[in-house]
Design a protein that fits this description.
This protein has three helices and no strands. By secondary structure, it is an all-alpha fold.
């Protein structure tokens, strides 16, 4: 058993944070873009929604490459 010193992350911990960040980005973007409440409240302009959809595509591409590298199942 190895102890992790404060401020020092293991490589596995760094990878888990990266995997989690990619997944969370996709979830959060999709929730915002597809939210009926956000539409109802007019929180996004059409241009902003389009730009967020572009961001979803970027994250989707990142996920694809991470899967190809075996970082994400």
């Amino acid at each position: 058993m190895s102890l992790i010193r404060p401020g020092k992350w293991s490589e596995e911990h760094k990878l888990e944070v990266l995997r989690s960040s990619i997944g969370n980005a996709m979830i959060n973007l999709k929730l915002l873009v597809d939210s009926p409440l956000a539409v109802e409240m007019q929180l996004l302009t059409d241009d902003e929604r389009k730009r967020l959809m572009d961001a979803v595509e970027v994250v989707r591409n990142v996920m694809k490459r991470a899967k190809e590298k075996g970082l994400i199942k």
